[in-house]
Amino acid sequence: MKTALLWGVGVIVVAAAACFCGLPGDGLDSSTVPQNCTVFVGADEDRVLVGNNEDQGNPVVNVWFLPASESAYGRFLIGTEGIVQGGMNEHGLVYDSLSKPWVEVAADERPLHYGMWPLHVLETCRTIEEAIAFFEQHNFPGVWGNGAFFADATGDAAVFEGVAIARKSGPFFVATNFQQTEAEPHGITCERFLTATSMLEDAEAYTPELFREILDSVHAEYHDGGGTVYSTLYDLHELTITCYLYYDYEHPVLFDLREEMRRSEQAFELRTVLPPSAAYESWRAGKIGNLAREIASLRTEGADPAPSADVIGHYAVAGGEPFVHAPLITDSFSVARVGDRLAFVACPEGVALELFPLGGDLFRIAGMNPEADFDVALARDASGGVSGATLSVCALGVDIALDKVSDVPVFDPLPGFMVPFPDSGGETSEPASDVSRIFWVGVGLAVLGLLGAALLLLLP
User: Fold this and answer.
1) Could you give the CA distance from residue 454 to residue 210 in angstroms, rounded to a whole number?
2) pLDDT above 60: residue 33
3) Confidence of residue 36 (pLDDT cuts 50, 70, 90)
4) Which fold has domain 292-406?
5) Which residue has the higher pLDDT, 433 or 405?
6) Could you tell me if 394 and 375 are in contact, meaning their C-beta atoms sit under 8 angstroms apart?
7) In this structure, what are the phi and psi dihedrals at residue 174, rounded to the nearest 5 degrees?
8) CATH code linked to domain 7-280+436-455
9) pTM greater than 0.85 (yes/no)
10) Closest by alpha carbon to 413, among 355, 347, 363?
11) Domain map of the chain by residue range?
């Protein structure tokens, strides 16, 4: 029972599964295809290209450029809010996360890797073979609800599906939201998969123009304003990334990874480097306005906007039993200060959420799906110092106790973590005129939207 509850809490902080949120937009059964995303790779003598559509309901798209360090390759990352959903490193290794039907992976004797293993692969690997070697050397037990797609500059590609790996065997490879290692070729009904496959089969050459046309042909539009929130087109030899926002394929922005790696680390919202889109801005303002009103309604009168320092530190599950949700495995989190606010940081790679003070020793992590909010209540010892915390899943009444093991955070948030939150419904700051260090608050709808479903699946 305890392990099941811990797995459920793991859903809250799993961020590598990035592509998680959204609503079905092409008539697919949402019970077997949780949401719609498409990724494909084509390789010939001239180039290797990867195209990707991220289809979901969270409008806040962030980009990071992180130069190389002693322990990590330089890399580009992209995702919604604090949820990294894909990227490319300086060797042309591309990663993307795909929502998949649930599959349980059993524990074995191999060592666990704590943190988001796909991001670790981007930091330390150059090829698919190196990624497979790392994966096979570690155990990632738990309930997988996603697959990790990788492609490299040789043209090789694979999707890691938890219990098996689907490998590229021809000049191109397409992946959507079903388990490819279990599917019969003639039984595949996903229209996005079939459309992309047909267009790649008929192509005389793999060109950026063809890949843009495929992205447009398989993009999603949801009735509530969501859909293909962003698209990426990677050239793995030239190390360029073309980004599109909200299925507008006429106004891209092109990044040269080599050039960006000569600069210091950067973090910014994708909309700040693209021409304004009335449709996107209207949808975004509505979603953020709803979240702003929720946060305003939660704040207790007199709640301190600059929380006291005693909450800062590192927390671990009492007794050391990890809570597990592949590909994130963690038994701890840090609370760090960012400006005058607090960040809840869930793993070594820096997945961060904002802690909103509700008054006293109570905080809330809130995102664009309020049904999946959860509270953090501090526990104090006899001397009044913070000795631990309890995570409470608001909708289900699930409580998990953690001990405070250090006054120093062990995990750090990604750069440019937060900007001032809008004070009232619908009002947001003007978009920046250049690439600035910004990072929106909250938890991505991508993660929070699945919390309730995951717990229902895991609880007896």
Assistant:
1) 38
2) no
3) confident
4) Lipocalin (2.40.128)
5) 405
6) yes
7) -120, 140
8) 3.60.60.10
9) no
10) 347
11) 7-280+436-455, 292-406
